[in-house]
Design goal:
It comes from Microbacterium murale. By secondary structure, the protein is an alpha+beta fold. It has seven helices and 15 strands. The chain folds into two domains: 144 residues, Fructose-1,6-Bisphosphatase, subunit A, domain 1 (Fructose-1,6-Bisphosphatase, Chain A, domain 1); 102 residues, D-Maltodextrin-Binding Protein, domain 2. It binds L-MYO-inositol-1-phosphate (LIP).
Length: 264
């Protein structure tokens, strides 16, 4: 099995190239390619082009690996390594011209099933800010070469982030979850990119993050960033259609989990 360090460097190199393509295409003007689960769940031509670039690089340099991409699906490989890719996470931000979008690339041991995979390496690149978050299993989490750590004290309350699904029928339930957790918070952010939200937890820019209904490609890289930065990431209700993901330092993670158990 290739080392986590090598997979991390490989993911970082591809994420930079893919992010630059996404940034160039955004500057040229974005065209809508299709809608998916709802009218709000969009895919742009750039999403497809960026994922094709990532897949071509992976196929050329690691042809036997498995792949799961948000736009092109994929399948298991023969090497025991599977790449889990979101070419543009924060697609709606990207389409509207907001800078909070990222390329998320993760390598896992096993298949692309978050209930059984073992994260090995991850890279999340935000091209507008030129910020590259990377992690290798057992090697810590880094931002542009600086070591990252989650926060552990939130005396003024926690700075939390969350997100909402594309299906409007889920919004009431998600807002109820926000009400359950808000007593722990000093404030709440909704950035629009799960990969960046998780990267920010790893970097201590957020104290915690929770969201229902994320897809594997949304969190595969960010999950490892948080755990390698000393945090805890868990998924609740994994048998449901919309599992809950919680990411934070250990004390806050326990408080968020406890708050979700309370009726309001
Ligand atoms: C997005 C996530 C975000 C979530 C959005 C959407 P996409 O991924 O990163 O956290 O709230 O509903 O799922 O669709 O931009 O790749």
């Amino acid at each position: 099995m290739t080392s986590a360090s090598h997979l991390k460097e490989f993911a970082a190199d591809i994420a930079r190239e893919a992010g630059e393509l996404a940034r160039r295409r955004r500057a040229e003007g974005v065209s809508l390619a299709a809608t998916k689960s709802t009218l709000a769940d969009i895919v742009t031509e750039a999403d497809r082009e960026v994922e094709a670039l990532i897949r071509a690089r992976l196929d050329a340099e690691r042809p036997g690996d498995g792949f799961l991409g948000e736009e092109s699906g994929g399948g298991d490989g023969t090497t025991g390594v599977t790449w889990v890719v979101d070419p543009i996470d924060g697609t709606v931000n990207y389409a509207y011209g907001m800078p909070a979008y990222s390329v998320s690339i993760a390598a896992v041991e096993g298949s692309a099933d978050p209930n059984s995979w073992r994260p090995l390496a991850g890279a999340v690149y935000a091209p507008v800010l030129d910020e590259l978050f990377t992690a290798g299993r057992g090697e810590g989490a880094w931002l542009n070469g600086v070591r990252l750590a989650v926060t552990d004290e939130t005396p003024a309350g926690a700075l939390l982030a969350t997100g909402f699904g594309y299906d409007p029928s889920t919004h009431d339930g998600d807002l109820l979850t926000v009400r359950q957790v808000m007593p722990l918070a000093r404030d709440l952010r909704r950035g629009g990119s799960a990969a960046l939200d998780l990267s920010y937890v790893a970097a201590g820019r957020l104290d915690g993050y929770f969201e229902r209904g994320l897809r594997p490609w949304d969190f595969a890289a960010g999950f490892l960033l948080v755990t390698e930065a000393g945090g805890i990431v868990t998924r609740l209700d994994t048998a449901s259609a919309r599992p809950m993901l919680i990411a934070a330092g250990a004390p806050l993670h326990a408080r968020i989990t406890g708050a979700l158990d309370k009726e309001i």
